[in-house]
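Subject: Protein record for review, amino acid sequence with backbone structure tokens
How to read it: Take the token row as a discrete description of the fold.
Enclosed: The protein record, placed directly beneath this head.
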Amino acid sequence: MGSTPTTRANQTRTMRKLLNSLKEVREEMLHKVSWPTWPELQESSIVVSIASVIIAIVVLAMDLSFENILKLVYNLF
């Protein structure tokens, strides 16, 4: 089965649109996006790491608390 000229024209148009979009994305990423500096990136990474550890500790505390509370409740029956 061959494709018709209309189908090929649509495919060519679609491919052109896709390539044009990719070129625009590249241009925007290179010239319009404000990328963080290395020190800003390091500082943000440290903040995220500390926040993750704090949240993990809070979740651990809640888990242990609920575990002990449920053991007390189960021991009543």
Summary: Residues 38-76 form the longest helix (39 residues).
